[in-house]
Design a protein that fits this description.
Elements lengths: L6 E12 L3 E8 L2 E8 H7 L6 E6 L9
Length: about 70
């Protein structure tokens, strides 16, 4: 499988906030915490659990930097 997203962060699932349609999934990637929203169906299909090792693939049209 080839993906066009280049920003990959490896981490561990630390929290899953379930909703009827979507879930907020939080991962710890090193010292960074990353949160994303995916469908509840995807969480169930992937059998995502707290402690799972996952890759967050981030594809954005805009990135901001702070110094």
């Amino acid at each position: 499988m080839q993906l066009s997203g280049r920003n990959k962060l490896f981490g561990e699932v630390t929290e899953i906030k379930r909703g009827d349609v979507v879930c907020e999934v939080v991962i710890q990637a090193g010292t960074n915490q990353i949160a994303g929203v995916i469908t509840t169906t995807s969480v169930e299909d992937m059998n995502l659990q707290i402690g799972d090792q996952v890759t967050a693939l981030i594809k954005a049209t805009e990135v901001s930097f702070i110094k």
